[in-house]
Amino acid sequence: MVPLIGNPFLYLLAVLAGTAVSAGLVILLKGMRGTAEPAKPEPSTQAKVTVAA
Asked: For 1-39, what is each residue's pLDDT tens digit?
């Protein structure tokens, strides 16, 4: 029978490599997502109140 984890060092190396690849893909895909400026907020319909001191 073959052990599930034959070499613990290679197991940790594989976990680190998978984490690095996943993080890289997330960063890449988030960077490719539209870089358009966010929509400007609508002007407020409420009157501005100023208080004189």
From this structure: 566 678 888 889 999 999 999 999 999 999 888 665 666
CB neighbourhood size of 30 (10 A): 8
CA distance linking residue 12 with residue 5, whole number of Å: 10
What does the DSSP assignment read for 11-34? HHHHHHHHHHHHHHHHHHHHHHS-
- C-alpha 39: how far from chain center: 21
Q: Contact, 26 vs 20, CB < 8 A? A: no
Q: pTM of the full predicted structure?
A: 0.53
pLDDT value of residue 33: 80
Q: Collapsing DSSP states into helix, strand and coil, what is residue 42?
A: coil
